[in-house]
Amino acid sequence: MKIKKILIVLSILYFLLPILLVSQSRKIIFQGRTYLYSDGKYYIKSGSKRFHLVRDNVVVKLKGNLEFKNLPLTKYNLPKLDVIASIADGEYKLIKIPQGHDLLDVFIKLQNSDYFEMIEPNAYTEYFSIPNDNYYTNNYQWNLSKIEMPKAWDISTGSSNVIVAVIGAGVEYNHEDLINQLNNNYKGWNYATNSEDPFAYNYHETRCTGIIGASTNNSIGVSGIAGGWNGSGIKMMYFQCQPDQYSQPTSANIADAIYRARSNGAKVISMSLGGLPYSTYLNAQITSASNAGVVICIAAGNYLRYYKDKVGWVEEEAFVNYPASQPDVISVGATIESDYRKAWDPDPTVEDWGSCYIGHLDIVAPGIHIPTTDLESYIGNKYTLSFSGTSAATPHIAGVVALIFSIHPNSLSVAQVKTILENGCDFKSFMNSDEYGYGRINAYKALKYTLENYGGTLTQDLTIPSGETWNFAHGVTLTFENHSRLIVNGTLNVNGTFSSKVTFDFISSGNSNGIWLEDNSHANINYAIIKNGYYGIRSSKADLKVSNSDIRALEYGIYMLNHNNTWYEAEILNNKIYLTWGYEIYLYNSGGKIRDNEIYSGTKGINLLQNKVV
Q1: For position 18, what pLDDT does the model report?
Q2: Whole-number Å distance between alpha carbons of 543 and 525
Q3: How far is CA 80 from CA 57, 74, 76, 83, 197, in A?
Q4: Predicted local distance difference test score (pLDDT) of residue 232
Q5: Distance CA 268, CA 530 (A)
Q6: What is the model's pLDDT at position 132?
Q7: 3-class DSSP state of 139
Q8: What is the pLDDT of residue 345?
Q9: How far apart are CA 168 and CA 604, in angstroms?
């Protein structure tokens, strides 16, 4: 009878042991990490930070050609485990742990089985927004003026050939200011419903999306950076990564979302989230996307303050959060209206958060009091005028990168985009690289640098403003569609070489297209190819020097008016000029040096009227 009682007790303990383990506070070291179980939740602890884990999930990668369903896991005292999702087309498996079984215990037993190349937790992410829904009208969309969007829009308003993916909690994609940007070929994915319907579970990504791509110039709402005039801008896809309506996005779903975004043509990914422990499987998808030329923009994170007994208010550590801390992404911090980094401020009238900066920070952007689209069911309005946090800063960078790809549709590597961003910032005297990275983004400077150093395609007139100098590097090609022109009011420098000329291709004659030099402008063009325009160069009272260039126009190779004093006298030296028809050189009331040019006559040759030519 005594033995029978002992057996009964042992049987009860066998079934209750997992539950007893779960009910205790525990700490173990596994794969070099500290895992905690406390207050009914699992965490990874790193320094003073704790990362919240999904209690009934584990992510694995099997060795070789093993199949999970064939593994004899019961001999390791493991419960029945099921694959509930595949990540990155099956490279990783998301495993469901039955209720009542300890996550940490399952980790150790799976490791002991020696069937797995990788075993890692699934973790909840954090959002980096600071909600503040008090409407106000001062400085309405100050952020766009700050980064010189009006001048940037004179270069590009966004192209439908560029797809941006927003990863987080889904988006109200039928919003009146967003509906035209939806990528109807592939909307994205919802991990709660396992469907291609990534509708919003909270406001967060709807706000982020408006900054990137709200329709511009459509007489409603707000202006997005790359939404295009009347909705003719970029296309967008969305990923709702929460496993249910009330939780946070998980690392497993984010990893798979990056894979799906890359596989479905996204060139830019925006992630206003983070706060995760390092993840092998997530990092693998980030690296694969980056190697494929996908630019991933991620919020650096916000640090807050907390109250500590006998100490008082203490600031959190301001380290850049993972995965923004990875070198092959663009990590984004937040600035305020005066361009200073948003720092924690004890003033109770000021938002009490700071923008993380310690570690890997690439760039900063406006991140406080940002007007944008909103989830109507959240506050009863379609717009908010006060979205804040590094969550609000990150979409600014994603939008500018989308514009970069809009004017440069050919392949740019992530490293090249980083170079463009580095040279496309305002770096104020009070800034330092630790807190501000490259500096605060300037959209106009970024697009200017792109065209000068990598070339691109223009669908509207490109104007060099008075007082500005543009320097085009050797080997770049600029293509002008829709009969658009290059209009010079400032200074144009073309720095080609004998073997690597700068090309200006106007595609087809029309609308008097070509290079237009306006009164009092300057142009020094050396080793260029100028072709397919109505004009090659049309110049009026400009300081013009053109040499060693091939000019292949349709009506006028070089057309000069009123170059009639010493300052305006042109130098046209050692060029090859040939036309389909019209005048190779047409001068009226002009003077200058015209020497050693090869003229291949179309029908009219050279016209010299009231000129002084040497």
Answers
A1: 47
A2: 11
A3: 13, 7, 11, 10, 32
A4: 80
A5: 33
A6: 42
A7: coil
A8: 76
A9: 63
Sheet holding 612-613, edge to edge: 469-473, 491-495, 522-526, 543-547, 570-573, 591-595, 612-613
Measured in whole angstroms, the distance separating CA 295 from the mean position of its chain's CA atoms is 6
Alpha-carbon distance of 290 to 586, in angstroms, equals 51
Burial of 235 (0-12, 13-18, 19+ CB in 10 A): buried
Q: How far apart are CA 231 and CA 548, in angstroms?
A: 43
Contact 365, 332 (CB under 8 A): yes
- The whole-number pLDDT of residue 3 equals 57
Three-class DSSP category at 195: strand
Query: Would you say 27 and 21 are in contact if contact means Cβ atoms under 8 Å apart?
Result: no
The single-letter code of the amino acid at 541 is K
Question: Before 366, cis peptide (omega within 30)?
Answer: no
Distance, in Å, from the CA atom of 557 to the CA atom of 578, rounded to the nearest integer, reads 7
Residue 473 amino acid letter:
A
Pair of tokens at residue 105: 């215990």
> What tokens appear for 11 in the block?
């049987």
Residue 122, SS3 per DSSP: strand
Q: What's residue 136's pLDDT? A: 25
- What pLDDT, on a 0 to 100 scale, did the predictor assign at position 566? 60
DSSP states of 57-107: EEEEEESTT--GGG--GGGGTPPP-EEEEEETTTTEEEEEPPTTS-HHHHH
Write down the residue that tokens 């009026």 correspond to: 540
How far from 506 is each of 243, 280, 477, 535, CA to CA, in Å?
51, 48, 11, 9
Identify the residue whose tokens are 């419903």: 193
Q: Which residues of the chain have pLDDT under 70?
A: 1-24, 128-139, 231, 306-315, 346-349, 378-379, 509-511, 563-568, 580, 590-591, 601-614
Sign of the alpha-carbon torsion through 10, 12, 18, 24: negative
pLDDT in tens, 90-103: 899 999 999 888 89
* 321 contact partners, CB below 8 Å, separation of at least 6: 126, 128, 274, 275, 276, 299, 300, 301, 356
Q: Is the Cβ–Cβ distance between 495 and 516 less than 8 Å?
A: no
Terminal-to-terminal C-alpha distance of the chain: 124
| Adjacent-strand bridge partners of 49 | 46
